[in-house]
């Protein structure tokens, strides 16, 4: 019985590989697969304290995108490095093997890890924990589109839960450009047909942008419109996150 | 009891045991243990200064590296390493050399069934050879359960594959232990009746398991006699070699 | 709680938390004398346990199990393989246990936890040797195609008794698993039957006409106990596991047969009486877990 695992047979997923039909995204007027308006975000479910073993943690569910972020530290820096006046931030994003419709390898996502690092770095008061490291680890349980913005928002909530000093909460929203339309908070299907995407990470109460990523084909007025959309959504998301933290705090006081 | 095993043994009969120590020059201690065609070579290096991270520096740390006969180590080998490590930790006096690491390298020479017990016996002999302070010796044995519920000891690989279930058991051997007998023997059961390690595969009834325990324990007395004899007999020759 | 009475030389006026950190063993022994544990459980009681089925939408079967704070998420994805020649009418199961860095401060990215592969091996041993799954039910076309069930269990929060929670999640995921209706297309590949081509009947033969569930027999359940002196602590937390180092895991199936008795070393020897006590505790626990699982399944069916 143990010998069976030795020769792993090649397998394939029975789900149809080619998309059934090209969706009508190119038209001027179409309905999004989940019935939302173009400028409407998915309902967000946020909860702090998801992982007991961590110093702080948060769980976020935006539609089908489900993410857990744990924060450890400030703790001793793993790498024996030179003395530093400021703390270090260490980020890691990984996916479960069942996060995507076709089974993946469940490996680390290097690109998202470094994007998360850049998005958070500017908001954390690194001077408040010299010589030590704060670890921010994210696991995407299910990927349903707009993964990175959800990870970033969830991470800042986890940092707040861990009591790490920050200038402000960090919120992140992305917009996809599909033909003539801009759709906010796209799902996986929309992301796979997009002509371009814009991701903004900002600190809503300070009105500062910590990260902006633009890919694909854009016209200048479109960019303006997309930035406005994102900033607006970011500040709304910030309110939701703030009320989530307040709820958790008042629950723990009782 | 009638002879009913492929190699002509009775159910309770062990394969011929052999143990030789101090084979490797560079290691601080080494031993080669064979049960029939299953042969394992164990080498001990240490105690070396320092422990790894996440280990308790107030105690000595034990590290086990499993080298399979061929190929890379996978999950089963990782499990063997963990079982060996935990088993050896429990027989070593870890407080004598705090903040040190002792490495045990286990090289499988040939696998013909009962591999893990053979490795545990080899490692125990190697620890003695290296002069690592031990609470007591450990004796490992594999008990197999046939479909009809009879227990077969020390199976070969062929027998292992046919069996419904088997159990790897490790017992202490402490007839001459220097430890005070107080806390370790509870409820009037002698120390040798305790199990250090138990790993089972396959489904069996609880009674069958207890039966295995009994048979394994009585057979372990033979192995421990052999172990003790072979450890003692080589001591004088070691001295003469050193002199 | 009880430790204020632990008037020792150094520990006379120490705060409880400080005492707990500095003298963990004495802190626990003081509790054990009173037959209670720091979380107010009696020694033989397991923590609150919950099972939720269908936690992952992208999987064919999934479950989340929580024992106290220990949280496991298990998901099964079915893929198609060509069965090996010696078992041409059987499917296969591949089990993997993951400890991502989010679950515990000990695990760091790129450096997997030492116990993960060991738990993984134990899980597949328990699940496969218990005979819970009839691999023939995973066959599609004898000799041509069979299901490979990839079971991945993620530890989301590690607080002791990892194997128990992982096994519970794995078993629950299998009981939630739905084998989809599939058919063979013109290229000889197995594809999911979707609503449209079912009507058209342009595909030759549906291999598996409708969604079905596996019939699970002899479901294994487990309980880990910690032996310390003469005490037996059921379902230890991570702190208890680190302070008292002799775990014993007993796996019994639903007809009370022993699937595994796992005691990897440890300073305390297991005597006959302790082994029997552990088995008795596990018997009780199996009944609890069976009820929890069947409640979860019936909740699912009501929805």
Automatic annotation (TrEMBL), chain A:
This is Exosome complex component RRP41-like. One of its GO terms (cellular component) is exosome (RNase complex). Residues 1-21 are annotated as: Disordered. It comes from the Eukaryota. The lineage of its organism: Eukaryota, Viridiplantae, Streptophyta, Embryophyta, Tracheophyta. Residues 1-17 have a biased composition (Low complexity). Residues 40-164, 168-229 form the Exoribonuclease phosphorolytic domain. CDD domains: RNase_PH_MTR3. It is found in: Cytoplasm; Nucleus. PANTHER family: EXOSOME COMPLEX COMPONENT, EXOSOME COMPLEX COMPONENT MTR3. Pfam families: RNase_PH, RNase_PH_C.
Automatic annotation (TrEMBL), chain B:
Its main location: nucleus. Signal peptide: none annotated. GO terms for biological process: nuclear mRNA surveillance; poly(A)-dependent snoRNA 3'-end processing; rRNA catabolic process; rRNA processing; U4 snRNA 3'-end processing. This is Exosome complex exonuclease RRP46 homolog. Residues 13-133 form the Exoribonuclease phosphorolytic domain. One of its GO terms (cellular component) is cytoplasmic exosome (RNase complex). It is found in: Nucleus, Nucleolus.
From TrEMBL, chain C:
Transmembrane segments: none annotated. GO terms for cellular component: cytoplasmic exosome (RNase complex); nuclear exosome (RNase complex); nucleolus. Keywords: Cytoplasm, Exosome, Nucleus, RNA-binding, rRNA processing. Belongs to the RNase PH family. It holds the Pfam family RNase_PH_C. Residues 46-180, 219-270 form the Exoribonuclease phosphorolytic domain. Coiled coil: none annotated. The keyword Cell cycle does not apply. It is found in: Cytoplasm; Nucleus, Nucleolus. One of its GO terms (molecular function) is mRNA 3'-UTR AU-rich region binding. This is Ribosomal RNA-processing protein 43. One of its GO terms (biological process) is exonucleolytic trimming to generate mature 3'-end of 5.8S rRNA from tricistronic rRNA transcript (SSU-rRNA, 5.8S rRNA, LSU-rRNA). It comes from Nelumbo nucifera. The keyword rRNA processing applies. It comes from the Eukaryota.
């Amino acid at each position: 019985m143990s010998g069976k695992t030795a020769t792993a047979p090649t397998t394939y997923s029975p789900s149809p590989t080619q998309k059934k039909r090209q969706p009508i995204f190119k038209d001027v007027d179409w309905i999004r697969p989940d019935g939302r308006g173009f400028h409407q975000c998915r309902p967000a479910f946020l909860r702090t304290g998801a992982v007991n073993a961590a110093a702080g943690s948060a769980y976020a569910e935006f539609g089908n995108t489900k993410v857990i972020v744990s924060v450890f530290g400030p703790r001793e820096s793993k790498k024996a490095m030179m003395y530093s006046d400021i703390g270090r931030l260490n980020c890691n994003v990984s996916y479960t093997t069942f996060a995507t419709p076709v089974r993946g390898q469940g490996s680390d996502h290097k690109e998202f890890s470094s994007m998360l690092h850049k998005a958070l770095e500017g908001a954390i008061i690194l001077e408040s924990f010299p010589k030590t490291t704060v670890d921010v680890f994210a696991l995407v349980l299910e990927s349903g589109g707009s993964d990175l913005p959800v990870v970033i928002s969830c991470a800042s909530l986890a940092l707040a839960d861990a009591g790490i000093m920050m200038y402000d909460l960090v919120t992140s929203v992305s917009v996809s450009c599909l033909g003539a339309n801009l759709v906010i908070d796209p799902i996986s299907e929309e992301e796979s047909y997009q002509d371009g995407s814009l991701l903004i990470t900002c600190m809503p109460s300070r009105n500062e942008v910590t990260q902006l990523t633009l890919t694909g084909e854009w016209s200048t007025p479109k960019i303006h419109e997309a930035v406005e959309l994102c900033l607006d959504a970011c500040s709304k998301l910030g309110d939701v996150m703030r009320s989530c933290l307040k709820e958790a705090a008042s629950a723990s006081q009782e | 009891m009638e002879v009913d095993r492929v190699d002509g043994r009775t159910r309770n009969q062990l394969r011929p045991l052999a143990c030789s120590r101090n084979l490797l020059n560079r290691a601080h201690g080494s031993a080669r243990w064979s049960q029939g065609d299953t042969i394992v070579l164990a080498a001990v290096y240490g105690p070396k200064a320092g422990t790894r991270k996440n280990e308790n520096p107030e105690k000595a740390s034990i590290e086990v590296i499993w080298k399979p006969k061929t190929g890379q180590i996978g999950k089963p080998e990782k499990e063997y390493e963990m079982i060996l490590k935990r088993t050896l930790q429990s027989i070593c006096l870890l407080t004598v050399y705090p903040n040190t690491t002792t490495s045990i390298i286990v090289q499988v020479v040939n696998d013909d069934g009962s591999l893990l017990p053979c490795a545990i016996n080899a490692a125990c002999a190697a620890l003695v050879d290296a002069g690592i302070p031990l609470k007591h010796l450990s004796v490992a044995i594999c008990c197999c359960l046939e479909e009809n519920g009879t227990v077969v000891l020390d199976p070969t690989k062929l027998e292992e594959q046919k069996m419904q279930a088997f159990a790897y058991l490790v017992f202490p051997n402490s007839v001459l232990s220097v430890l005070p007998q107080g806390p370790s023997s509870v409820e009037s059961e002698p120390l040798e009746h305790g199990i250090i390690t138990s790993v089972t595969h396959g489904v069996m009834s609880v009674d069958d398991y207890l039966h295995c325990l009994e048979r394994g324990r009585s057979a372990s007395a033979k192995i421990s006699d052999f172990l003790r004899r072979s450890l003692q007999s080589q001591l004088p020759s070691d001295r003469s070699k050193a002199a | 709680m009880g430790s204020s009475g632990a008037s020792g030389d150094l520990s006379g006026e120490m705060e409880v938390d400080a005492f707990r950190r500095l003298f963990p063993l004495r802190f626990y022994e003081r509790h054990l004398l009173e037959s209670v544990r720091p979380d107010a459980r009696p020694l033989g009681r397991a923590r609150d346990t919950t099972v939720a089925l269908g936690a992952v939408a992208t999987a064919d079967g999934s479950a989340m199990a929580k024992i106290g704070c220990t949280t496991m998420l298990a998901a099964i994805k079915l893929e198609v393989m060509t069965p090996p020649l010696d078992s041409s009418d059987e499917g296969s199961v591949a089990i993997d246990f993951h400890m991502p860095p989010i679950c515990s401060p000990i695990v760091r990215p790129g450096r997997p936890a030492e116990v993960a592969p060991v738990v993984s091996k134990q899980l597949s041993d328990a699940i496969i040797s218990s005979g819970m799954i009839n691999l023939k039910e995973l066959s599609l076309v004898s000799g041509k195609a069979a299901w490979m069930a990839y079971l991945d269990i993620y530890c989301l929060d590690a607080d002791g008794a990892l194997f128990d929670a992982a096994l519970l999640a794995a078993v629950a995921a299998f009981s939630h698993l739905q084998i989809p209706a599939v058919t063979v297309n013109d290229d000889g590949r197995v594809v999911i039957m979707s609503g449209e081509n079912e009507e058209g009947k342009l595909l030759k033969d549906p291999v598996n006409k409708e969604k079905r569930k596996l019939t699970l027999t002899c479901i294994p359940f487990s309980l880990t106990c910690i032996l310390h002196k003469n005490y037996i602590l059921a379902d230890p937390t991570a702190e208890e596991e680190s302070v008292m180092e002799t775990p014993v895991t007993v796996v019994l199936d639903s007809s009370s047969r022993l699937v595994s008795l796992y005691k990897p070393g440890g300073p305390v020897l297991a005597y006959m009486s302790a082994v029997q006590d552990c088995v008795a505790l596990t018997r009780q626990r199996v009944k609890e877990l069976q009820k929890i699982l069947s409640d979860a399944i019936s909740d699912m069916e009501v929805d």
